[in-house]
Design a protein that fits this description.
Elements: H1 16-29, E1 36-37, H2 40-47, H3 51-63, E2 76-77, E3 94-99, H4 106-121, E4 126-131, H5 140-150, E5 154-158, H6 162-171, E6 174-177, E7 188-191, H7 194-207, E8 213-217, H8 223-234, H9 240-246, E9 247-249, H10 255-269, E10 273-276, H11 279-292, E11 301-304, E12 319-322, H12 325-337, E13 345-347, E14 351-353
Parallel strand pairs: 3-4, 3-5, 5-6, 6-7, 7-13, 8-9, 8-10, 10-11, 11-12
Antiparallel strand pairs: 1-2, 12-14
Length: about 375
């Protein structure tokens, strides 16, 4: 999770497979290749490369949506509906922006690596930069400086604030994963609707006898979405003061601060269940519970809205939700193939992963 990337390519040296893929794509788009593309053995002989390179080139074209999936013993069919003038992404620089002061969740790292691989398969360079989304409510000048520093032609934002989303969409073609977002129609978004996704999860807790379900959030922008989910489940049976107690902002994103937050919140609120929004918060909660002698799920049930396969090794295994990375990547690739024109606001459904961290509510609470 603690990976920090800052990548740039001042000198472009394309892999041979990408060079071959570019050549084949040019022949497809100009009509020199029609219907089917020859197999890797024939391509290897024709262009003087080895079969591994030819196979990799075919995979590049497949990722760009120009070839159908491979079938044993058959040539790869050209997908004619995706044949259009060379994508605007080619040779343009993509800049990925993510939060500066907290480690990226593993699933976010994997998603952004796929984004980078997909962009580079189209021949464009990729840079990564860390910014403090929460620090600036008017980030225009800071964003301009970052864009100029990296020479960016397009942006990918990972879970930004609405202010960064708004300013980014004004300046460059922007694709955003998660976070608060701008209403700008030029913005492409792939996320999940927090309030609607929380409703069945809260109901899941309620079915186990829970009512005091505590949800800490790192910023104010998510508070209303969480409260809306509570209202959908509890209606008028939950007062505003109860809701304010159960939905609290933990603003400082440092481990020491969160130990204090947990101590204060769990003593004052005395919840029977906790939902955390990311894996850093979940690690912090598990650590605090171990130190304080709180047994999960006997004393406290826990659910994480972030997935990390390494947590399958924890005891008890946390109940987690997982964002559908493959579906998200299809939308991103569609954005690239479409010349960076907006693909709209897309909300995907998360998958609930079973675990051992949720049990019946404590009696008398």
């Amino acid at each position: 999770m603690g990976f920090i990337f800052r990548m740039s390519k001042p000198i472009e040296r394309k892999p041979l497979a990408v060079v071959l893929a570019d050549k084949l794509e040019e022949e497809i788009r100009t009509g020199q290749l029609k219907g089917y593309v020859a197999g890797r053995r024939i391509l290897a002989k024709r262009y003087g490369v080895n079969e591994k390179t030819a196979s990799a080139a075919l995979n590049v074209l497949s990722k760009k949506g120009l070839l159908a999936d491979a079938e044993s013993g058959k040539r790869r069919k050209i997908i004619t509906q995706d044949i259009k003038p060379a994508a605007k992404a080619a040779s343009k620089r993509l800049l990925i922006l993510h939060q500066a002061n907290i480690p990226l969740p593993v699933e976010d790292v994997l998603l952004l690596r796929d984004v980078q691989d997909s962009w580079e398969a189209n021949g464009g360079p990729v840079s990564w930069a860390r910014v403090d989304f929460g620090r600036y409510k008017k980030p225009g000048r800071v964003l301009d400086g970052v864009i100029d520093r990296y020479g960016a032609d397009a942006l990918v934002l990972m879970a930004p604030t609405v202010h960064w989303s708004t300013e980014a969409a004004k300046r460059l073609p922007t694709f955003q994963f998660g976070g608060a977002f701008s209403a700008n129609p030029s913005l492409s978004l792939c996320s999940f609707a927090l309030d609607s996704e929380l409703v069945p999860l809260i109901q899941f807790f309620v079915d186990q006898g829970h009512r005091k379900i505590f949800v800490p959030t790192p910023n104010e922008e998510l508070v209303n979405a969480i409260r809306n989910a509570y209202r959908s489940v509890f209606g008028d049976s939950m007062t505003q003061s109860e809701m304010d107690e159960l939905v609290q902002v933990f603003p400082e994103r440092v481990p020491q601060a969160w130990r204090g937050y947990w101590k204060k919140a769990l003593m004052q609120v005395n919840p029977t269940a906790v939902m955390v929004l990311d894996d850093n918060a979940m690690l912090s909660l598990y650590g605090f519970c171990a130190e304080a002698g709180i047994k999960i799920p006997r004393d406290l049930s826990v659910l994480s809205l972030s997935y990390d396969e390494r947590f399958e090794w924890m005891q008890p295994v946390p109940v987690m939700t997982r964002f559908p990375i493959k579906k998200a990547m299809k939308l991103f690739k569609s954005w690239v193939r479409g010349g960076l024109e907006s693909v709209g606001k897309n909300f995907l459904q998360v998958e609930l992963r079973k675990g051992e961290s949720i049990g019946p509510a404590r009696k008398g609470v």
